[in-house]
Inverse folding.
């Protein structure tokens, strides 16, 4: 087995353990900020690194909802929360998510994305196309009475890259043929809305896209942290608070680096009809006759 695969397996071990812990403490009454920080600190204390910020996307927010620096939101009984976090070892990233709805009001919606993930995994092997995978996802979600989100996709993973170029759609499109040793995050999204997401007005997630320096002292300090801790991996604005020590400085640095095109932003993604959204996600390695499910 290659070193790379060993790193994926080690990241997967930590991701599975942290997921188990998260399933215990992501409960009504928990502060979203505390939950995200706990997930991220558990990853570190188990000897791995944050692949990307922990997201707790609520209800019609499908993805990219990570708590703000001063976030006061508390999980409610009725919330449908997508808990999505990444773990990396030497840049090899495990991407996983689960959905929790304490009231069980949306149990069928939650089951639909889980079933779609199971069905997707059972068709995946070398030689199948991503269209075959999208078909399995779409069929499972439609059969359950919901819509797949057509403009959200799973993705290939590569060292230090979360979205490495190949998309794994929720609908039957795409010609890419799966190859042995390909690493994919597979993530069906089901909704009772229209089946599309759009950028919302809130952004808390950023990543480095240009290696230029900056002049502003706050921006230079932020960049130093980004180069040391994140390289090109995404991070949350709140991660800069211990580095820059005030919300004002963080906001100043992020605005400055965005304006110069040094950072890119990842806005929250909301279902266009404010439909409820569920997600199930795991990371796999493609094998000759099946996939190895890592977490
Ligand atoms: Mn994910
Ligand atoms: Mn993903």
């Amino acid at each position: 087995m290659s070193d790379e695969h060993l790193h994926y397996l080690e990241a997967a071990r930590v991701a599975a353990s942290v997921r188990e812990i998260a399933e215990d403490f992501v409960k009504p009454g928990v502060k979203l900020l505390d939950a995200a920080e706990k997930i991220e600190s558990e990853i570190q204390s188990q000897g791995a690194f944050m692949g990307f910020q922990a997201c707790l996307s609520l209800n019609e927010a499908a993805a990219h909802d990570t708590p703000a620096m001063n976030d006061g939101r508390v999980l409610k009984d009725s919330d449908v929360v997508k808990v999505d976090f990444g773990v990396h070892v030497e840049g090899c990233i495990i991407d996983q998510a689960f959905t929790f709805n304490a009231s069980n009001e949306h149990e069928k919606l939650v089951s639909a994305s889980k079933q779609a993930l199971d069905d997707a995994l059972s068709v995946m092997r070398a030689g199948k196309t991503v269209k075959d995978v999208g078909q399995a996802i779409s069929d499972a979600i439609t059969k359950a009475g919901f819509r797949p989100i057509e403009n959200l996709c799973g993705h290939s993973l590569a060292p230090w890259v979360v979205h490495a170029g190949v998309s794994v759609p929720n609908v039957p499109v795409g010609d890419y043929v799966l190859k042995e040793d390909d690493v994919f995050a597979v993530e069906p999204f089901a909704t009772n809305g229209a089946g599309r997401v759009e950028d919302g007005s809130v952004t808390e997630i950023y990543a480095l896209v240009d290696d230029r320096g900056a002049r502003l002292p706050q921006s230079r300090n932020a960049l130093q942290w980004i180069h040391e801790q994140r390289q090109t991996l995404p991070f949350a604005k709140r991660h800069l608070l211990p580095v820059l020590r005030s919300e004002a400085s963080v906001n100043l640095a992020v605005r400055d680096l965005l304006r110069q095109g040094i950072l890119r932003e990842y806005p929250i993604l909301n279902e266009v009809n404010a439909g409820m959204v569920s997600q199930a996600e795991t990371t796999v390695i493609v094998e000759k006759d099946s996939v190895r499910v890592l977490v």
User: Anything to note?
Assistant: The longest strand covers residues 197-208. The longest helix spans residues 3-25. The chain has a mean pLDDT of 97.
